[in-house]
Amino acid sequence: MNINLVTSNSGKVEELSSILEPFGHSASQLNVECPEIQTSTLEEVVDFGLDWLASKNVQTPLIIDDAGVFVEALKNFPGVYSRYVYDTIGLSGILRQMEGVDNRAATFRCVLGLILDDGSKRKFVGECKGNLIHEMKGTGGFGYDPIFVPEGYDKTFSELSSEDKNKVSHRGSAMKKLIKFLSELK
Ligand code: ITT
Fold it and tell me: Which helix (H) or strand (E) holds 68?
C-alpha cells in the first residue's frame, strides 16, 4: 500500500517510511498544511486533523503524527506544546528549566491518525519512557532527541541508530500497532 504522510517534519518522514517499508508498504510525504488546534491532548489534535483532512478530500490512505515530550518535574510540560517550546526557548531553554532538578523522568508520546480509502479513521498511540540528560548529545534524529535517553539505554535518541530508536520509540510502538491493523484488513 502507498501511504501519504501528512507532515512537515522530514525526521518523521524518514522514521515512518523506514518502519513501513520492510512490511511492503511505501510512503510519500504530502505537504498539506493541516491546522493544529491548541488543546490539552495529542489525541484531540489528531482527531481534529483527521476530520479536517477528510473534509478536504485529501488523498488517502494517509497518516498524521502528533508527538510530544511530557516532563514529570515540569508537570508534563511541554507535552502538546512541544513544537512551540522547541521553536521558542529550544532545548537549551528546557535544560535551563531543569537545572538543579533531580527528577529527570520524561515520556515521549506519539498519536498516529490513519484514514483509509473507505474513509474509516483510526488512532494508534505509542509511548517511550526515559530521562532528560543535562546536556545535548549526538547528531542523529531530530527535535528533542539530543536530550532524551530511553529507559534501558545509556545513549540519547540522537546517539542511537535510527533502527535502534525505532525499536523502542513512541513512534515505533504506535507504528507497530498501525502495521498490525493494516495486516489484518481483508
Ligand atoms: P508536523 O506537525 O508537521 O507533523 P511537527 O514537527 O510540528 O511536524 P509535532 O507537533 O508532532 O510535529 O512535534 C512536536 C515537537 O516534538 C517538535 O518540535 C518535534 O520536533 C518534536 N518531536 C516529535 N517527535 C519527536 C521525536 O521522535 N524525537 C524528538 N523530538 C520529536
Answer: strand 62-71
- The pocket around ligand 1, CB under 6 angstroms, is made up of 7-9, 12, 65-68, 82-83, 86, 141-145, 157, 169, 171
Domain limits for position 165: 2-185
- Encode the chain (186 residues) as per-residue pLDDT tens digits: 999 999 999 999 999 999 999 999 999 999 898 888 889 899 999 999 999 999 999 999 999 999 999 999 999 999 999 999 999 999 999 999 999 999 999 999 999 999 999 999 999 999 999 999 999 999 999 999 999 999 999 999 999 999 999 999 999 999 999 999 999 996
Closest-lying ligand 1 atom to the alpha carbon of residue 66: 11
| 66 counts as catalytic | yes
**Number of domains comprising the chain:** 1
| CATH number of the domain within which 111 lies | 3.90.950.10
Q: Please give the distance of CA 72 from its chain centroid, rounded to a whole number.
A: 18
Q: Cα 38 from chain centroid? A: 17
